[in-house]
Amino acid sequence: MRCPEILTLQAVCVCVSVSVAMQQYPAAWSHYDVCKSRIYTEEGLTWDYMACQPEATVMTKYLTVSLDPPNITCGDPPETYCTLENPYMCNNECDASTDELAHPPELMFDFEGRNPTTFWQSSSWNTFPKPLEVNITLSWNKTIELTDDIILTFESGRPEQMLLEKSLDYGKTWTPYQFYATDCLDAFTMEPKTVNELTQRTLLDIICTEDYSRGYVWKYDKTVRFEIKDRFALFAGPRLHNMASLYGQLDTTRNLRDFFTVTDLRIRLLKPATGATMVDENNLSRYFYAISDIKVQGRCKCNLHSNSCVFDKDKGKLGCECEHNTTGPDCGRCKRHYHGRPWSVGSYLPIPRGTANICIHRSHGPVPHVCDNAMLLCQNGGTCHNHQRCHCAPGFKGVLCERTRCQVHGPCEEYPTAGQPSLHPPSPPGPSRSAPLPTAPPGGDMVLLRIVVFITTGQ
Ligand SMILES: [Ca+2]
Questions:
Q1: For the Laminin N-terminal domain, which residue ranges apply (predicted)?
Q2: What's the 225 CA to ligand 1 centre distance in angstroms?
Q3: Residue 41 C-alpha to ligand 1 middle, in angstroms?
Q4: Full-prediction pTM beyond 0.85?
Q5: What is the pLDDT of residue 213?
């Protein structure tokens, strides 16, 4: 008989918030919110583990924003701007030294709902014809999974050319997410496409869209989107009613899961709205970028080993509160002493509880590997048997066949090195083969055993 019994206060809180969430979203969204519960079995009270993940939330509360060039924000020195629609209507003032007239980057992430809106604004295009390019980088210092569309709201005209990029390695390398242009062929030599043209097979294709950058001014078309939900819908159906199908795909297709995973986003503004084919060189204060709001929804990536992600104010970053005997910012490895089997990501399958794939205590798991043929741990021509012992070539001994047999009694002569098994193992192709192998230290087997444990446990 199965009798779940929630133990911790935190788990109770999660359940309460989930019951609220269930009213707002399709039921499939609310799975995977409990990591473990107590159950009574024939052996008595025990833990039952499930795959779990934090709830999706507004991620813009936890990011840091940086601009390149850093001094591109307007107001230093103060400037007056004209509207794109009417070059004689010039009442938009920007002055960084006055709170009411300053437009710093944080106004892209404040609470909207007030009237008038608050917005970040760049300097005007007074360097024309040199391009007016601005990079806006959003960094979480944590791996997150996007769960809803990214929406940028422009206060002025939307850019004529723009690129959205993502990073999965904290900003070291970048890949495009989507290109945006009034003319994709002209700007990026790409055929224009819309997200509706994507199929399950082409879901990961990077497209250029003309949907969000019209060549003339549409005063009420202010948003630019990166369509996450339309991509989800290719697997989950138009109303996302079949999330099981999506989760199943996410489980089995690593590229798909990675596609929606980021540590950073970069908005590359490449050409501002001009409202016409020709730029009015006599009135460059009509051309600038202004963004009032950026929406990013997502959840911490915890590898299905945590239902809670907490912002540490001292470190200034998010971190998963790991369950299932895992640890690390993304619960990406087993806790100390819990290497009874290798770490593994949790699984969404079978729906709806998934599989926790918990780390188990070393004493409950299989005996750690002593040797491994793939890593060539056995030396001097020795071969690994059942990962537990090296079968040494004649004339060698030791846990890893690292010692010559005659070493104990004195200098070795009966096994000359010429023509005999090499003191170094053969080197088949492959990058791991060139890694330095443990050699025989003077301390003997105990030292070597420690090296082997280090290799097998990663500690
Ligand atoms: Ca704002």
A1: 48-299
A2: 17
A3: 54
A4: no
A5: 84
